[in-house]
Each structure stands twice: as structure tokens, then as C-alpha cells.
Amino acid sequence: MRVLGVDPGLTRCGIAVVDGGTGRTVRCVAVDVVRTPPDADLASRLLAVADAVEDWLERHQPDVVAVERVFSQYNVRTAMGTAQAGGVVALAAARRGLPVAFHTPSEVKAAVTGSGRADKAQVTTMVTRLLGLDSAPRPADAADALALGICHLWRAPMRARLAEAEARAAELTRRHRARLAEAGRRAAGKGTTP
Q1: Catalytic residue check, 68
Q2: Which one of the listed residues 68, 119, 166, 182 is annotated catalytic?
Q3: pTM over the 0.85 mark
Q4: Catalytic: 141?
Q5: Which of 1, 50, 169, 192 is deepest in the core (most CB within 10 A)?
Q6: Please, which residues have CB within 8 angstroms of residue 1's CB and are 6 or more apart in sequence?
Q7: Residue 54 known to bind ligand
Q8: Tens-of-pLDDT digits for all 194 residues of the chain?
Q9: 7, 19, 32, 39: which is the annotated catalytic residue?
Q10: Is there a contact between 120 and 143 (Cβ–Cβ < 8 Å)?
Q11: Distance between CA atoms of 86 and 2, rounded to whole angstroms?
């Protein structure tokens, strides 16, 4: 499976492609950071992010796009810009019919380091090690995009199994309720028979 991981942002948007192999093997295909000037208007900045994502989708043909889910931050303006950039990424993927998975920062940290409270340096160190890179990806947004790709590759099979189990449980519940309703109808029908 090939994942396009995106750490959304307006000033710096981390973007990476990670391939997953058998077991937990992962390989870095490409990584970069899309930068937009802080003094440019919002629409132009979002367009620059969208154009870059479209280019990466075309060049690398991922199977899925993994985006960091935005949580409220102390700086509402930053959170809004991050959410808007993430929305542009999701839209670009949806236009191509690609599934989009959103992962929280703590999910990504836990998948890569084993701790949902890991700091950026720990994430960068583990991403470098897991992918066998010669040097740490810089800036941190690049490492975060790679971490998103790894996280999705490792969590997707579990999510798929969980969704399958939930679907089976829902079907069993539906069948059980149908049997109970039928038994109730039969019992009601016997009570009114002369």
C-alpha cells in the first residue's frame, strides 16, 4: 500500500509518500515541505497547497491519503489555517476517489514511538530509524508527514478488522432482533386463537 501523508499547515505543509510492505516494513518514497509566504492572502496560500498536493497525487499515485487531524490549539488562527489546509488536501484526494484517513497527533506519536506523548525530536528519531534514512528529515513537518504515512500503514489493518467485526456484530444484532420479533408475533398469534 502506498500512503500520501500530509501534515497540514499554511506556512509549512509536510508531505510524504511511504510504501508499506509485508509485516511492518516501510519505505520512504519521497518527502518535502510545501511553503507559502505568510504575507500572501489566504486564498493564494490554499491554492499553492492544493497545487502541490495535486502534483504529488499525480506523480506518486497513492492508494490512500493520511492527514493529521486538527485539534484546538492555543492559537485559534493557526488552528484555522491548519484545518483549512487539511480540507484542501481532503478535497484533492476526494476528487480522485481516494480514501482519506485522519489521524490524531497522539495516534501518530503512539504508532511511531510507542508513546502518544512523544515530542517532535522523538518522532523524528524514530521515523529516521524506521525508514532507514541517512539523515533526519527537516523540518519537523517533513518528519511528521512521514510519521503519518507510517501510522496509517500500521493502523489501517487494525481499523479494517475492527470495522469488519463491528459490521458482523451489527448483522448478528439485526438477525437476533428479527428472531425475537418473529417469536413475539407467534406468541401473540397463539394467545388470540379460539
Answers
A1: yes
A2: 68
A3: no
A4: yes
A5: 50
A6: 19, 20, 63, 64, 153, 156
A7: no
A8: 999 999 999 999 999 999 998 888 999 999 999 999 999 999 999 999 999 999 999 999 999 999 999 876 667 778 888 999 999 999 999 999 999 999 999 999 999 999 999 999 999 999 999 999 999 999 999 999 999 999 999 987 666 666 678 888 889 999 999 999 999 888 888 765 55
A9: 7
A10: yes
A11: 19
Q: What is the three-class DSSP state of 40?
A: coil
Say if CB 130 and CB 150 are below 8 A apart.
yes
Report the alpha-carbon distance of residue 70 to residue 76 in Å, rounded.
11
The response to whether 68 counts as a known ligand-binding position is yes
Per-residue cell: 5:
501523508
Which among 107, 134, 141, 166 is annotated as catalytic?
Answer: 141
Report whether 7 belongs to an annotated binding site: yes
Grid cell at residue 9: 499547515
**Domain layout of the chain by residue ranges:** 2-157
CATH: 3.40.640.10, 3.40.1110.10, 3.30.420.10, 2.70.70.10. Which one for 2-157? Answer: 3.30.420.10
